[in-house]
Design goal:
alpha/beta, Rossmann fold, 7 helices, binds 1-O-phosphono-alpha-D-ribofuranose, binds uracil
Length: 234
């Protein structure tokens, strides 16, 4: 039991999928896992453990933003010795050829600031995905009909952005999409020698204003969850 996760040692699997939304954790656990048991309800940040294709898997909500993700990822790694952490999140597209429903595998996660800034100070650390997971996820994605992109993403501290000039530079420098957690996840994984990846579904488009219709969210998010499960257990 930690400050934020009300689980006992052994309740959480070595592999944890992390959506921002705790209700997405519930949906994914009920949809994809067998014998899923809820191990955490502290602050409503639901966490579940079950099995998928015989592999023990946990799905833990991270909350929105890097400070929240950082709390859960730190406790999962340091107190529950989790080895593989895969973020399954929504993201806003920043390139014309990235469309709603597409999947983005985040090779790197650029950020202006993260909770690790206090440690890294003047160092412009480059948070990057675990190659083994990225490679496996790409191979899995090739067997599916969903269009998948691999490249850099931007982990923002704000959803309601007031810096269109910064977004323009992101787009100009090839950043595929924006979300709010991956850079801190990758930095923590690097610090503690764990495997991390962010598998993202494009839910809206910053250039076109397109938005994923609410009734399609589950079906579109399903591809992302299955890619993450297959990559984690490859
Ligand atoms: O869909 P999730 O995983 O929450 O991810 C994205 O959605 C939230 C913003 O609406 C942020 O957490 C962002 O990273
Ligand atoms: O952080 C996010 C997530 C989805 N869409 C966005 O525009 N930003």
């Amino acid at each position: 039991m930690t400050v934020h996760i009300g689980a006992e040692p052994g309740d959480i699997a070595d592999i944890v999928l992390m959506p921002g939304d705790p209700l997405r954790a519930k949906w994914a656990a009920e949809t994809f896992l067998e014998d899923a048991v809820c191990y955490n309800k502290v602050r409503g940040m639901l966490g579940f453990t079950g099995t998928w294709n015989g592999h023990r898997i946990s799905i833990q909500g991270s909350g929105m933003g890097m400070p929240s993700l950082s709390i859960y990822a730190n406790e999962l790694i340091r107190d529950f010795d989790v080895k593989t952490l895969i973020r399954i999140g929504s993201a806003g597209a920043m390139q014309k050829d990235v469309a709603i429903r597409d999947v983005v595998l985040a090779m790197t996660a650029t950020t202006v600031s993260s909770p690790s800034r206090g440690i890294l100070k003047e160092l412009n650390f480059a948070p990057c995905a675990n190659w083994e997971l990225l490679h496996a996820a790409w191979n899995v994605a090739q067997t599916r009909s969903v269009k998948t992109h691999v490249g850099g993403i931007y982990s923002s501290d704000v959803f309601y952005d007031e810096r269109p000039d910064l977004n323009e530079q992101m787009t100009r420098h090839g950043i595929l999409a924006v979300e709010m957690e991956a850079a801190e996840l990758y930095t923590l994984a690097a610090r503690y020698g764990r495997r991390a990846l962010a598998v993202l579904t494009i839910s809206d488009h910053l250039l076109t204003g397109d938005v994923l219709p609410a009734e399609e969210r589950e079906r579109s998010f399903g591809d992302m969850v299955e890619i993450a499960l297959e990559a984690a257990t490859a």
